[in-house]
Design brief:
Elements: E1 8-12, H1 16-28, E2 32-36, H2 39-49, E3 53-57, H3 65-72, E4 82-87, H4 93-99, E5 103-106, H5 111-118
Parallel strand pairs: 1-2, 1-3, 3-4, 4-5
Length: 128
């Protein structure tokens, strides 16, 4: 699923195995990826990095993924950024949407699940 388009993707995930998996697979597709392990770190880096996509775990130490999405949605520099939730738990999809997530990925997920969920970038940069 190689794409000629490059995206800036922020991964907020406290499980090192999942974060490494995402970073390796997305960078192999030519995307620029930053991975952090806490919501606080995600909030710190997001404004400067200006990702076109945020993949965020819901159960993070400290600030949870719902709160991270709600806060990041208020950043003017992230207008148009897509937010995808990641979780190993059953969640209420309406809660995801209320927090600002467009989709949810259920862990464990495959590379195909990841690419189907991410789809094209809203900033007109093509698909993953």
């Amino acid at each position: 699923m190689k794409s000629n388009q490059h995206h800036r993707i922020l991964v907020i995930e406290d499980n090192d195995c999942v974060a490494d998996y995402l970073k390796i697979h997305l960078e192999a597709q030519g995307h620029e990826v930053r991975a952090v392990s806490t919501g606080e770190q995600g909030l710190e880096i997001a404004d400067q990095f200006q990702p076109s996509l945020v993949l965020c775990d819901l159960t993070l130490p400290g600030i949870d993924g719902y709160t991270v999405a709600r806060i990041l949605r208020r950043y003017p520099s992230l207008n148009g950024t897509r937010f995808i939730a990641m979780t190993g738990y059953n969640v209420d999809r309406s809660e995801l949407h209320q927090a600002g997530f467009e989709h949810g990925l259920s862990k464990p997920f495959t590379s195909q699940d990841l690419y189907l969920t991410i789809g094209p970038s809203p900033r007109g940069q093509g698909g993953v």
